[in-house]
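Before a colleague's protein record goes any further, I have to sign it off. My question to you is simply how this chain folds and whether the tokens agree. I do not need a full report, just your reasoning and any doubts. This is what I was given:
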Amino acid sequence: MIDAAPDNSAYARGKAFTEETNPGMEDALRARYEHLLPGLARDLVEHNGRIYPRGVLPQQTRELLTIAALTAQGGQTRPQLKIHVSAARKLGVSQEEIAEAIYQMSLYGGMPAMFNALNAAMEVFEAEAGETAE
């Protein structure tokens, strides 16, 4: 039997982290998936609260690792990649550091995966530039 009781401390940590790096994520997931998978949005926030704030690695490093993993997985991860590029930027990771992490993955995911990820990252960077120009 699965224990469905939430870990409120992990949820609280996850909520704080996701609202800092991806405001509205839980609400967006709930609106999209709740009718099919009740509790999915909360579960993801709680899972983030178990993984991201562990304190061993800096948050910026965790986001770069996530970007690298999503890059190596290929183009099907584009939406998630853009979310994590944006989160990394909010945590102070430079465009150059993100591009370098993506480039490093050309060795593991291949050049097409690297170009797909680099193009996704550039879309995030361009959106940021548009926000600062307003």
Observations:
- The longest helix spans residues 111-133.
- The chain is about 70% helix and 0% strand.
- The chain has two domains: 9-56, 57-133.
- Helices lie at 8-21, 25-33, 40-51, 59-73, 78-90, 95-104, 111-133.
